[in-house]
Specification:
The complex is a heterodimer. By secondary structure, chain A is an alpha/beta fold. Chain A has 15 helices and eleven strands. Chain A has a five-stranded mixed beta sheet, sandwiched between helices. Chain B starts with a helix and ends with a helix. Chain B contains eight helices and eight strands. Chain B has an eight-stranded mixed beta sheet with strand order 1-2-3-4-5-6-8-7, with helices on both faces. The chains are: A alpha/beta, B alpha+beta. At the A-B interface, helix 1, helix 8 and helix 9 of A face helix 8 of B.
Chain lengths: 391, 249
């Protein structure tokens, strides 16, 4: 296999966007091409989950490649639930690593605010098991609520730990101009004050409002290329060192131990094996905190902390921007937002930015190795990526 | 015989019990004071409402235009039994709410405008307004309408307001909804919060001056702007056009 490098990155604001889905996919692609100065693209991958259902837009890849004037480059859409973004990067990686392509453009986009929050929640819930979960009214917040309750009972995670994740990530997002939420929050305001229950009501007990990510529109893009092309850009050399993917049962209740996220564990393991380094070497990570509990659990399953001790590392401040392993400096899904098809690529965007040393106010000191975890379904399809800066 | 026309034009001054100030801790941890303002303070508020006339998003323009008129009419004695409450964070004006008495038993809610978005600033202020009508003025119900979808979600859905569609509301003559005492009692535990008395220092700071909002809603710099970020001030087509002009493609 050839080495693969992330040479160009682009992103939109994650918020409510007024322009069409195709534009949301194209804009970050334009930014990424501008970033690296490369416009000769062999193949385009477009990650998206709900275009056909909520935006009445199918064949997105064909629309994007034409809008970007990149025809006759190959183009394909990737739909893999909320893991669509990193799945598309994985496809792009294979294309370059195999020698089939020299430069691929991987863009992801979602326009979820076209529908109201109830419809958006329902649309995401369609990824659950149609007969064992969806028909009974299961939604992602409800699955996450049940999961959180079990995790609290088993490992001693408390509402305070969840609030600490929310505060950390939402406050990181204050330093990210593209983040959806630009509001400082405090543990006092969302947990301790007499008004906390009104400020932060239960959504799916024990998860509260500030434990859940917002519904966002947004797009992100990463351009991957061979070493020869990467060298010509003059940008810092950021190698996509590892890619790992793993799956688990579709229905959550079929898992032997529902508090184990085996797909995260498996994907991270494969990813680190390929990268040739381990969790201890990672300087910065972007984890899929669609719900605050997930950041804690993924940090354990990826191998950063022992099982059941992620919340203790959080308490010690190890995952803060100034800590030993900053997690979600971008604000994560909680603060930056979660346009499902774009999220995995936005995570990669952040890590590349960090490894280049271009993250501004939220720059992690001496970041050389980074990791992302893009969590599909309720942990039934997970893609992890490892990046390394080569000096 | 001389006639004092102003006496005829001015509404009758009915005694209304004052709204006792209260304070609420927001999700940000900041303390927000909600208090009643005097007529003399209205010109200071008008300065902050006027720029919202040009913010199309979420019907700020419609709401600001009407609110401006209501505040001005209050200031110049051309509206009957109106009151105005403000929400302040460190002196900064975060929200303005107002309404009036239609009769001793029925209130007419006018507007709720958040000058700082999020953190339930508008929702807390609206709750204080309803508390004023139901608990302090002892009214039976308050007639409410919403001009924006956000308002509809906050008032009609969260409080489960009753329809009073046979009564045209003073805001545009549209069908009214009603918050009854019973509905208010049901919402009391979850939506109506705040503490009294307000600590002296906090209240003094609020009364010392109506400071300008730090992050008010603003119109987009570029009418084609798709997001609040200046980095996204154009769509792809325009960007491609620019690149073509620059010879980049």
């Amino acid at each position: 296999m050839r080495d693969v490098y992330a040479i160009g990155i682009g992103i939109t604001s994650f918020t409510r966007l007024e322009y069409p889905l195709v534009e949301i996919a194209c804009y970050p692609a334009m930014m990424a091409m501008k970033d690296c100065g490369v416009r000769a693209i062999d193949h385009v991958y477009v990650a998206n989950m709900g275009g056909g259902r909520i935006n009445h837009q199918t064949g997105l890849a064909s629309a994007v490649v034409d809008s970007l004037s990149l025809t006759p480059a190959g183009a394909a859409g990737i739909e893999n639930g909320p893991a669509s973004g990193a799945s598309a990067i994985r496809e792009g990686f294979q294309a370059v690593a195999s020698g089939m392509c020299d430069v691929v453009l991987v863009t992801g986009a979602e326009r979820m605010r076209e529908v109201n929050n109830l419809d958006a929640t329902d649309f995401v819930a369609t990824l659950s098991h149609p007969l064992a979960e969806y028909v009974y009214g299961v939604t992602l917040p409800s699955l996450a609520g049940l999961f959180t309750k079990l995790y609290m009972q088993k490992y001693g995670v408390t509402a305070r730990h969840l609030a600490m994740v929310a505060v950390k990530n939402q406050n990181n997002a204050l330093r990210n101009e593209f983040a959806h939420l630009h509001q400082k929050i405090t543990v006092e305001g969302i947990l301790d004050s007499p008004e906390a229950m009104t400020n932060n009501p239960f959504v799916a007990e024990p998860l509260r409002f500030f434990d859940c990510c917002p519904v966002s529109d947004g797009g992100a893009c990463v351009i991957l290329a061979s070493k020869e092309v990467a060298k010509k850009t003059g940008k810092p050399m950021v190698r996509l060192a590892g890619v790992g993917q793993a799956t688990d049962t579709h229905a959550v209740h079929e898992r032997k131990e529902p508090t184990d996220l085996l797909a995260v564990r498996g994907a991270a393991k494969k990813c680190f094996q390929m990268a040739g380094f381990g969790p201890k070497d990672v300087n910065v990570a972007e984890l899929h905190d669609a719900f605050t509990i997930l950041e804690i659990v993924e940090s354990e399953e990826a191998g950063f902390f022992p099982k059941g001790e992620g919340h203790l590392a959080l308490e010690r401040g190890e995952t803060s921007l100034e800590g030993r392993l900053p997690i979600n400096p971008s604000g994560g899904l909680k603060g930056r937002g979660h346009p499902v098809g774009a999220t995995g690529i936005a995570q990669a965007y952040e890590i590349v930015l960090q490894l280049r040393g271009e993250a501004g106010e939220r720059q992690v000191k001496e970041a050389k190795k980074g990791f992302t975890c893009n969590f599909g379904g309720f942990g039934n399809n997970v893609v992890c990526l490892a990046f390394e800066r080569e000096d | 015989m001389s006639v004092d026309l102003e006496k005829i034009l001015r509404p009758i001054e009915n005694p209304i019990p004052p709204f006792p100030a209260k304070h609420v801790t927001l999700a940000s941890g900041e303390d927000m004071v909600i208090r009643q303002v005097t007529r003399d303070e209205i010109p200071d508020i008008l300065v902050y409402v006027a720029p919202l006339l040009h913010v199309e998003r979420d019907y700020y323009d419609v709401v600001a235009a009407r609110l401006y008129g209501e505040l001005l009419a209050y200031y110049r004695y051309r509206v009957q039994d109106e009151y105005v409450l403000v929400a302040q964070i460190d002196g900064e004006v975060a929200a303005v709410v107002n309404g009036r008495l239609l009769s001793p038993e029925v209130g007419m809610s006018y507007h709720t405008v958040a000058l700082r978005r999020g953190l339930r600033i508008g929702a807390h202020s609206f709750a204080a307004k309803m508390e004023y009508h139901i608990d302090i003025m002892k009214q039976k119900e308050v007639l409410v309408v919403a001009e924006s979808p956000i308002g509809f979600r906050r008032w009609m859905i969260e409080y489960k307001l009753e329809k009073r569609f046979d009564i045209p509301h003073e805001l545009g003559g549209v069908p009214s909804w009603a918050l009854t005492r019973e509905l208010f009692d049901r919402a009391r535990e979850t939506l109506v919060v705040g503490r009294r008395p307000v600590p002296d220092k906090l209240l003094e700071k609020a009364k010392a001056g109506l400071l300008p909002p730090s992050d008010p809603p603003t119109p987009p710099e570029d009418l084609l702007a798709a997001t609040r970020s200046r980095y996204d001030s154009t769509g792809t087509a325009l960007m491609a056009q620019q690149w073509k002009q620059e010879g980049k493609v």
